[in-house]
């Protein structure tokens, strides 16, 4: 069934990019973004009265995006030696970049998830309620989410460190299973870690760790 929501990016244009490119994305109001395979009815019927909704390509669950989030994506063409046929290895790329950045801002080192998707199946509706390869955890709590879209021309890696609590996402779902509120409330943010003043420095460190020279600043509007 065709979704009634627009794609988050112009993915056909992305597939024609010949250089590895980092995207630093800003928004001026909250967005809700569905995973590529999620049906529209994951979200409550009146969701459009609350937030704009877009759909991304790739796996994972629904995400609530808010102003000041650290949202960094990368397109890496297939000819780039960093691209692998192993999707888990691809997901570990941004995890390593974020790890190398965040060790400079946290009292102790975070951890990069190396295994597959884990967590209760009923909570996988929301990206930040479970864990997957490449994602960053700190003291047992999720800090950075990672998704990827792998096509013939390359890979698109999407990452997010929330600025503030994303617990409100639970109220935007058609069904909110037991444990969802607690899982979303446990997600770490710039605010909860007192890192808001370091936001731009963190972005610089992540981009530096990725060694991707081509960069684009994007402002997504409703």
Structure, briefly:
By secondary structure, the protein is α+β, with helices and mostly antiparallel strands.
Structural descriptors:
three-stranded mixed sheet; alpha+beta; 222 residues; 4 helices; BirA Bifunctional Protein, domain 2
Structure description:
- Helix 2 packs across helix 4.
- The protein has 222 residues and is of the alpha+beta class.
- It has helices at 11-14, 87-102, 180-185, 199-210, and strands at residues 21-27, 31-34, 53-55, 63-65, 70-77, 111-112, 136-138, 141-151, 154-161, 214-220.
- The chain has a single domain, classed as Bira Bifunctional Protein, Domain 2 (BirA Bifunctional Protein, domain 2), CATH 3.30.930.10.
- The chain has 4 helices and 10 strands, in the order H-E-E-E-E-E-H-E-E-E-E-H-H-E.
- The strands form 2 sheets. It has a 7-stranded mixed β-sheet. It has a 3-stranded mixed β-sheet with strand order 3-2-4, with no helix packed on it.
